[in-house]
Amino acid sequence: MDINSINTVNPTEEELDKWNKEGLKYSKGDGVEQNHEVAVKWFLMAARKGFVKAMYNVGVCYCYGQGVPESKGEAAAWYLKAAEKGYTPAQISLAKLYWLGNGIPQDYEKHLYWLTRAAEQGSADAQYMLGNAYARGLGADKNYKEAFKWLEMGAEQGCEKCQLTIGAIVMSASKYDDISKYIPLAKKWYKVAVANGNLEAHFMLSTIYLRENNYVESDKLIKTAAEKGHAQSQMALGIAYYNGERVGQDYSKAAFWLHKAAYQGMAYAMYVLGLCYLYGDGVEENTETALDWIDKAAENGDQNAIDFLKSLDEED
């Protein structure tokens, strides 16, 4: 399709859609050589005739400087045109710009307004962001009831991050926040995520069961996640075997799981694995290897390892 031969007088909705899709082809390099300048021309032709998806795409181009000079202000103007027509991606993008005050004055009320509009129209992404905003008091008074209302809406649509966030909020809240009544809600959505194979949900649900002294269910979840490669679960299982917590103390199994977690970057696992090598717990004693692991743990920010190395320096 030649852009210079297009009749732009009274185009149909179908034609506007084709123009927008032409823009997307050039933007992505889909079947044509990628060319953001040409993409913008197609988007603008459709956007100026009121095609909402093209309005949004013009906003994206200005936001990231694709085919036009980067301008968050211009991006916001085009997002607003699309947002007012009810296009949820534009509403979310506009909300983000208002939150950051990027190219437009920072405005938390407008941030929440546009997120709410998108969430009310069923956007799980907006429901997730809005739930977080209320849970953390970002631009609004902290309100857990409102937070969980929106997060549940997203969770019911299968939004995994909404399902996990409900539990994360409950587990991380201060005891003064008094949201223990929401623990059953956290368990409900963690179970859904577990059933869908989410390993983070395995780990977090096991933590809830541990607090409830339900060691059988907790350990079952931890072992499943560890066997499937979840680093935190591998570390937790290794520590449990190292200390003999809820399982018989077994240094060989401790070292096995700590190795796996350490190779995935878990700093505390590196530190305890270093102790295993230092004292010959479950592995052959090797001071050089021990210090290598403890050094790595310290480099990754583990305070135990940092303190251990400082103590060695003081002895010298």
Supply the key terms.
single chain, 316 residues, mainly alpha, elongated
Provide an overview of this structure.
By secondary structure, the chain is mostly helical. The protein contains 17 helices and no strands. The relative contact order is 0.04. The mean pLDDT is 93. Helices cover 71% and strands 0% of the residues.
Q: Structural class from helices and strands? A: mainly alpha
The level of helicity is: over 70%
Poorly predicted runs are none
Q: How many β-strand stretches?
A: 0
From the N-terminal CA to the C-terminal CA, the straight-line distance is 77 Å
Assess the beta-strand content as a share of residues: under 5%
User: Roughly how many Å is the radius of gyration?
Assistant: 26 Å
Tally of contiguous helical segments: 17
Average of the residue pLDDT scores: 93
The arrangement of helices and strands along the chain is HHHHHHHHHHHHHHHHH
Dominant shape:
elongated
Largest sheet: none
